[in-house]
Amino acid sequence: MADKIAVGGVSVDTRHWIGGRRVASSGTFPDVSPIDGTTLGEISRGTPKEAASAVAAAKAAFPAWAATPRAERARILHAIADGVEKRLEELAIVETTDNGALLRSHRRGVMPRVAHNFRFFADWLLSLDHDDFDTFPSGGSAAGRGHTNHVSWDPAGPCVLITPWNAPLMLATWKVAPALAAGDTVVLKPAEWSPLTASLLADIAAEAGLPAGVLNVVQGYGAEIGDALTSHPDVRRISFTGSVPTAQRIAASAAANLTPLSLELGGKSPLLVFADADLELAVDLAVEQYDNAGQVCLAATRILVEEPVAEEFTRRFTEKAARLTQGDPRDAATDVGPNIHPRQLEKIDGFVQRAVAAGARAVIGGHRSDGQYYAPTLLTDVAQDSEIVQEEVFGPVLTLQTFADEDEAVRLANDTRFGLAATVATGDQARADRVGARLVAGTVWVNCFFVRDLQAPFGGSRQSGVGREGGTWSFDFYCDLKNTVTAP
Ligand code: NAD
């Protein structure tokens, strides 16, 4: 096996990164580009042995990193952000080749956000530990009067971070950055369908001066090494982004040691279009759901339109969607790229064909395009309790249903086992407030989509997740919170 492969002219190490050293496994797995099915190279196929050495390296590095002054930890995180910015173009081309998402999105949005993840949590770290208050300052228990409470965020220990392929480096650094800022050490397990940018991140972090063992990267199949990581007694936190079935396995495995979990899972989010909405904006929001070929956890894949505007909405949507260009994600003109894997394509088409067999009508799409591409699809005449309305497809497939009034809109929107996000298009702020308050979702967007400040909590209700990430919620998760009470 070659230790390094060239991807888009960038050299990427195919081995694990453990304790500050490159480590190879005897076995490998192929990494295939979804753009054209080319095998990019063979990647080290981790086993429980490498999983255990990565946890051991993270454990050994923990005391010194936890004791590193915050200002120094923050300085190193900013240096990692500098490294990401310096290699932004390389990261963008490698990520696009590896997972098929648009190159222009990686250049303009995703990779700058990766750098921002490090800067944001570095700066937030320096604002912690200002939480001091008196016990019952104005009455209450006489026994506790005048005592000072000091809340501190203590580093928790080695963390296992497991991430999916649809936004590999963005989602990995959304976990790595706060964990490192908090003073924890990390074993990162990227998805086997997009292993490359995690390897580049290890190089960047080492160049930025992150001490050996603080960040470790183990490659491989989740089914082969996941359990060795998630059931390990030395692991103090597990943060996972991925599917519900995998989360259930991880939760069962973590139960052995009662390891605290953060779970960011799937969704089947609604877009509610009211008759008083700016219809052009509503159509734009709906067409935007084909971004990343529909492989977005937050995607509003269930379009719910108020009856009086349904026909006009569908007409304008169809017109706009017809102008989308599907093709090579490296081309600037491309709007919709490939889907990640032949197996995923099979799954998407299965959902669509079963829906059509059950009576759904494909207004657009409803079939594969050439290669590993699926035609952007809109299905109408779908029943609320049907598979296509209830299950996450994770491809460019939307459904459209109509509603008569606000009550019915909310009922349809909430009739799902998920609760990740919801988008409301309306020209009436009072309605937005009323409807928003009734929706079960971690994020509600009003007349917008995908915009979020990193200070805000991010996560899902119901089966879309457990816990919240972002701002203080990330630190609360990656730290052991302590209250020290001092007598007057
Ligand atoms: P997946 O659950 O198949 O895999 C995710 C990761 O888990 C991979 O790294 C995989 O190797 C690993 N894994 C698999 N089995 C494991 C096991 N037994 N133990 C430990 N790890 C194991 O998910 P996917 O197909 O890669 O990603 C798509 C899913 O992720 C969708 O459901 C999507 O909605 C969800 N997602 C959620 C968010 C969010 O923030 N809520 C963001 C992106 C994606």
TrEMBL record:
Source domain of life: Bacteria
Keywords, sorted A to Z: Oxidoreductase
PROSITE patterns: ALDEHYDE_DEHYDR_CYS, ALDEHYDE_DEHYDR_GLU
Tagged with keyword Lipid biosynthesis: no
Record-annotated Aldehyde dehydrogenase domain positions: 25-483
Record bears the keyword Oxidoreductase: yes
Stored InterPro entries: Ald_DH/histidinol_DH, Ald_DH_C, Ald_DH_CS_CYS, Ald_DH_CS_GLU, Ald_DH_N, Aldehyde_DH_dom
Gene Ontology MF: a single term: oxidoreductase activity, acting on the aldehyde or oxo group of donors, NAD or NADP as acceptor
Pfam families tied to this protein: Aldedh
CDD domains linked to this entry: ALDH_F8_HMSADH
Residues annotated as the enzyme's active site: E264
SUPFAM superfamilies: ALDH-like
Family according to the record: Belongs to the aldehyde dehydrogenase family.
Name by which UniProt lists this protein: Betaine-aldehyde dehydrogenase
